[in-house]
Amino acid sequence: MDRPPIEARTRTLDALAQAPLDLLVVGGGIVGAGVARDAALRGLRVGLVDRHDFAFGTSSRSSRLLHGGIRYLAQGRLGLVRDAHREKGVLRQVAPHLVAPLPFIFPAYKGRGWPLWQLRLGVKLYDLLCAAWGADSSSALPREAVLARIPGLRPLELAGAVRYFDALTQDARLVLDTLHSAANAGAFLANYLRFDQALEQRDGYACQLYDERAACPREIRARRVVNATGPWANSIPSSQVRLRLTKGIHLVLDRLRLPIQEEAVVITEGARLLFVIPWGQRVIVGTTDTDYHGPVAEVRTEPADVQYLLSTANHFFPQAHLAEGDVLSSWAGLRPLIANPQGVPSDLSRSHSITSPRPGWWDVAGGKLTTYRLMAEQTVDRVCRSLGSEFAPCETASRPLLSGAEVNGASGILPPAFARESVEHCCAREWAFHLDDVLVRRTSWAHYHGAGSDQVDQVAGWMADCLGWTSTQRVEEVQRYLRTADWPPRGHKTP
Q1: pLDDT at 1
Q2: What is the helix (H) or strand (E) element at residue 486, kind and residue range?
Q3: What is the mean pLDDT of residues 310-334?
Q4: CA atoms of 316 and 169, how far apart (whole Å)
Q5: What angle do CA 487, 173, 436 make, to 5 degrees?
Q6: What angle do CA 46, 444, 371 make, to 5 degrees?
Q7: Cα three-residue angle 9-94-81, rounded to 5 degrees
Q8: 3-state percent helix, strand, coil for the chain, nearest multiple of 5
């Protein structure tokens, strides 16, 4: 295997400080990764930093869907739906290994949620807006066909359903492969490097950073800065973003516990939509949508969240009798919505904004996973115009996204095989320094298999060999991981 990445990280940090950057991107989630890739492909000297791991926040805690947002049709946000469908088509072309078209069945119940006639009209409009996406057309299903396709679905008051297509992805892997593409184009990338402040200079900024791994300050110079830190955006010095954070959680169950086969199920629950999504031999159930006011890095699954999802799933699948003991894992994430103090959280727009509160500084906020490439293109357009030089045009809509994981199919939507080779790959080539970097974001093993102690100890042993951990460091890494693991939920009492 390649040598551990300690030396490579040091070389990256040295390169960041050697000469001024054209652009410093703060935030290693999907939007920041997209900005770094786009800018590097256009010929800019680009650096990207994140105080946590890459994809640590929202970008590894989504519903793992690339979707147009069918409920936005009822809100009249046709432009948002059209853009999302167009971007789905782009991603299907440039990253086919991370885009799996997925049929969705949306049942209609008499006296509850959207009536069947409205769903039929909605999916036809969905088809018109998503012509560039290239998936099959939607269709209406009679009651008997719905029950045949989804055994165990609540039959009482079922009027029928519609069937339409969106897509499944692996959100953290999409970030990592975008970062691999950025690095291949010349971008300098460093996780666990905290941005503290940016001091204005004649042509740009002196950016004060802190190396969380080496416990020392660093300084780099950048002509332009983009703040793409998602739910942290309004806490970054110089930022003028105003966010409204909402929390969503997801549960992972064995697929045998819910009787769905190849199609996802969408259920209306009040103002929310509940998704039941097939994921290999597992099923993902989500999501909640509630305001969140706590520390961003400490968002967790709460017992009340779990009970809400389980009770809702049990209502629509009454034969399942789901209980907390059926949950293999969970994750909780935050949606960084543009602030709007009024309205129900699930009704807030997923539109994005790009603002420049200071010369040479941009805040990019809001948006959704599906439209990240468009957000990045629009941001880099502004950066290039401000620099005033001739740069290459945007290529991200046509240039294939590189896959950084060649081992055991780790570049796809399903987790790679549980093997030492996968761990060595993550450490040597994918910037993994901590146990959760591998278990949660690079492999999804923690979510797919559950956070079992045998698995945790095994991976810790492999990482210790790769990264040269002492026995004390290995124990500390296991303890650190177990402290931050999201399952069982905070406040859970084991019987």
Answers
A1: 41
A2: none
A3: 96
A4: 25
A5: 35
A6: 50
A7: 110
A8: 40, 25, 35
What's the confidence (pLDDT) of residue 233? 95
Task: Tell me how far apart the alpha carbons of residues 189 and 217 are, in angstroms, rounded to a whole number.
Answer: 17
> In this structure, how many other beta carbons lie within 10 angstroms of the beta carbon of residue 215?
7
Q: Which of 475, 473, 239, 210 has the alpha carbon at shortest distance from 361?
A: 239
Give the 3-state secondary structure of residue 63.
Answer: coil
Say how many Å lie between the first and final Cα of the chain, rounded: 45
C-beta atoms surrounding 293 within 10 Å = 6
pLDDT at 238 (0 to 100): 85
Over residues 242-253, mean pLDDT: 95
Q: Are 226 and 26 in contact (CB under 8 A)?
A: yes
Cβ partners under 8 Å of residue 308, min gap 6: 288
How far is it between the farthest Cα atoms of the chain? 70
DSSP 175-215: HHHHHHHHHHTT-EEEESEEEEEEEEETTEEEEEEEETTTT
Domains of the chain, with CATH numbers?
Answer: 6-59+172-242+348-387 (3.50.50.60), 99-169+245-336 (3.30.9.10), 420-484 (no CATH)
DSSP label of 72 = H
